Amino acid sequence: MMMEAPRMVFMCLLILATFQQVVVSDEHQPLSKVAIHNIISELDQNAYVKANPSVLGLKGQNTEWVTLQYYNPKPTMDDWIGVFSPANFSASTCPAENQFTSPPLFCSSAPIKYQYANFSSPNYKKSGKGYLKLQLINQRSDFSFALFTGGLTNPKLVTVSNKVSFSNPNAPVYPRLAQGKTWDEMTVTWTSGYGINEAEAFVEWGPKGGKLIQSPAGTLTFDRNTMCGAPARTVGWRDPGFIHTGFLKELWPNKVYIYKLGHKLFNGTIIWSEQYQFKSPPFPGQNSVQRVVIFGDMGKAEADGSNEYNNFQPGSLNTTKQIIQDLKDIDIVFHIGDLCYANGYLSQWDQFTAQIEPIASAVPYMTASGNHERDWPGSGSFYGSMDSGGECGVLAQSMFYVPAENREKFWYSIDYGMFRFCIAHTELDWRKGTEQYEFIEKCLSTVDRQKQPWLIFLAHRVLGYSSAGFYAAEGSFEEPMGREDLQVLWQKYKVDIAFYGHVHNYERTCPIYQNICTNKEKNNYIGNLNGTIHVVVGGGGASLAEFAPINTKWSIFKDHDFGFVKLTAFDHSNLLFEYKKSSDGQVYDSFKISRDYRDILACNVDGCSPTTLAT
């Protein structure tokens, strides 16, 4: 029988997988609920899973829907379908593990997604028959669909489908733009299955309607040994393929460019992506309308409803959708940490980059590092948690380009027209006397406010102010040691707005310094703010955080919902701030700042330049 060979392969692999180490369940990652180490084989010759179509992407698509039809002679309400890629459940020896888990004898990969068998089939329990429509993205390998009984905690393999694959699983996919180290440089990063021994990676680009040139791209990858611990080193490991970055230099300001990703095989064949376009950044100080979107903690979600756990990332797709709908009026995006919550399940990074592709392929998608990207015990992170799932920053540093001097440190600055953005890395020490503190002061102090009047600070954890319940319990309404050193810099260099994620809600403060509001206005600021407005915008998509039942004097607006912020600089004197809900894209909080250059120069508390009576 056609299914007999695959069944025997799976039986062998899964018997080996029963020796797999136990991985502690992660409340943020639904794939962690699948107890791979408990899988046993109970293959039933009468059961089946049929997947159609078997070949995807025949017209160049990198996202396709697959229809499953399945039957289990002994159905239960806990039956589920797991999507595995590679189709043969990657099984290979593992390196020795860390002190937090027992050394495994073998590794077996977790599924890339799952769904309960009765999700689309309410009569499944009676008939044993069901169907599902699942969305697949091109991830450099083939797929199979396995039917399990016994729930997620005690899974028993019943049957496995035929294999499904994209026509070219190695194709270049999911471009991510980012501003380079100078204002006139754009970088484009993408993923493929082509290494340097198979093809030369490049970008073909140029002004729309003009001459195109080809620029070479660098190629990086990493292996399992680069991961710091489980599950990234074990059940969450999946080959990341190859990550390429091209540098498009000497751009003319505010000009539309087109580009394509290419791989020239050594037989002369060129594999192309589809064509994309972007608008180049404005010259620093340029007086033109400039629009910025900022949010944190979005995560990823599945359009087919799979992988849902505790409703953890219900706002993610809505946030993505609203930004896409407004994309023609957006110039640059900042996602300030907790990007996709892969938490050691590497397949989810592909899922995330596919989700944001319509955004990241068209405007610079700048990232900051959060606890779910970086933190791991003994890895040099400021916090000793296991929030990264063993990734310890490697995925965030590799999948996205940032113009940092050292991408492991992940702090950097961006000059975008009338804006200066200073991006901090809260998972490394930021306190006075550290290298990062010196960077922050240099970033804030070197901006020419006559040309770039809008000075913005961004970080993941709340180094300023938040009414979140867990921060209120600390007694300081901030990340411990958060603002004690930095508030002096914010005040001295007159930072306009500081943005944070980490807390999954929205909150805006008054202009504030040392817990005191420095301006009584709430929506129409004219002249010197005398302090910094602090904004928590961590409602990008991950499950919402509760506010403390305390009303502080400095908190102007709170919203327990998903959303993002849009800044619009009309000129050197007028800035519009808008908070939009992800559910409908409407504005629910806003303010304006109107001022002249002399207002920035004006003296404020602890922010006065020395003077002399001499003439």
From TrEMBL:
It is found in: Secreted. Residues 174-279 form the Purple acid phosphatase N-terminal domain. One of its GO terms (cellular component) is extracellular region. Its cofactor is Zn(2+); Fe cation. Residues 49-168 form the Purple acid phosphatase Fn3-like domain. It catalyses: a phosphate monoester + H2O = an alcohol + phosphate. Residues 1-25 form the signal peptide. It is an enzyme of class 3 (hydrolase). InterPro entries: Calcineurin-like_PHP, Fn3_PAP, Metallo-depent_PP-like, MPP_PAP, PAPs_C, PAPs_N, Purple_acid_Pase-like_N. Keywords: Glycoprotein, Hydrolase, Secreted, Signal, Zinc. Its main location: secreted. Its EC number is 3.1.3.2. Residues 531-590 form the Purple acid phosphatase C-terminal domain. Residues 291-506 form the Calcineurin-like phosphoesterase domain. GO terms for molecular function: acid phosphatase activity; metal ion binding. Homodimer. Belongs to the metallophosphoesterase superfamily. Purple acid phosphatase family. PANTHER family: PURPLE ACID PHOSPHATASE, PURPLE ACID PHOSPHATASE-RELATED. This is Purple acid phosphatase. It comes from Arachis hypogaea. The lineage of its organism: Eukaryota, Viridiplantae, Streptophyta, Embryophyta, Tracheophyta.
